[in-house]
Design brief:
This protein is an all-alpha fold. Helices cover 56% and strands 0% of the residues. It has one domain. Helix 3 packs across helix 4. The longest helix is centred in the middle third of the chain and has 21 residues. The chain is extended and about 65 Å long.
Length: 111
């Protein structure tokens, strides 16, 4: 499983310590976030994707900020479920949420 964070985003020491993390459990243990194994077992990919989403929206540069993003991502799935949270596009489409690229919107030209 690919890492939830991109290379080059953080200090080299933190980045090197995180390089071996692969599973949701690895990340949660590394950052000291208490977790229920059953919640992680059911939602592992969703938690990591949500963590990634939070990292993309935040200016995260240190261990504490990373931990806060991961704890928030995990907490989303403690309080809710994958269908409600709609992390992945397939769940968004199933709920009737669709995106249309701007390039697909335009005036129709007369023949």
């Amino acid at each position: 499983m690919p890492s939830a964070v991109s290379a080059g985003s953080f200090g080299s020491d933190l980045e090197s310590r995180m390089s071996g993390l692969e599973s949701a459990e690895d990340f949660l243990e590394f950052f000291g976030v208490d977790f229920d194994p059953q919640v992680v077992r059911v939602n592992r990919l969703h938690i990591l994707q949500r963590f990634h989403d939070y990292l993309q929206r935040a200016d995260v540069t240190d261990h504490a900020a990373l931990r806060a993003c991961l704890a928030r991502a995990y907490g989303d799935f403690v309080r809710s479920d994958a269908l409600t949270e709609r992390v992945f596009r397939v769940h968004q489409r199933a709920a009737g949420i669709a995106t249309v690229p701007l390039t697909a919107i335009g005036r129709r030209r007369a023949p």
